[in-house]
């Protein structure tokens, strides 16, 4: 007769500090989030935003935090927040209607990893560093074409010679 499998000891390490769902909140992340690869599929900012939305959500997964509050709590600039939010929406982990968030039941499986960016066009559309570089170059080019625009704006459109 085969011996029964050995049971893992499940007693808590600190019995007087066992977590419970309190009256003030309801937050959980299902084990599937780790076991099915969702954890590994998220970028760091996506993971942080997801956890914050889980912690802020009610029993139906709804959260009403605005972007300014979320950026402050996460200590990230707006562009990184938007990228993380859009990534979570694209991965079908949250819904967003412009005001409210809903943390969704996990989809059937984790999203496939993004393919690498290969062309200059892909980099200009998807790589934040390249997007910033292109924007800075465009702004410098515009400033060289209209070098007096800043002075004109300060003087309310008057010629600098008229001020002397």
Describe this structure in words.
The chain is mainly α and 164 residues long. The protein folds into 2 domains: 79 residues, Arc Repressor Mutant, subunit A (Orthogonal Bundle), CATH 1.10.10.10; 44 residues, no CATH class. The protein contains 9 helices and 3 strands. The chain has a 3-stranded antiparallel sheet with strand order 1-3-2. Strand 2 and strand 3 form a beta hairpin. It is elongated, with a radius of gyration of 25 Å. The C terminus is likely disordered.
Biggest β-sheet: count, sense, barrel?
Answer: 3 strands, antiparallel
- Helix content bin: 40-55%
Structural classification: mainly alpha
Counted by DSSP, the helix tally is: 9
Report the mean per-residue pLDDT as an integer: 83
Low-confidence stretches: 160-164
The third-level CATH topology of the largest domain is: Arc Repressor Mutant, subunit A
As laid out across the biggest beta sheet, the strand order is 1-3-2
- Taking all Cα atoms into account, the compactness measure Rg is 25 Å
| The CATH superfamily title of the largest domain | Winged helix-like DNA-binding domain superfamily/Winged helix DNA-binding domain
Q: Quick one: CATH class of the largest domain?
A: Mainly Alpha
- Regarding quaternary structure, what we see is single chain
Return the CATH architecture of the largest domain. Orthogonal Bundle
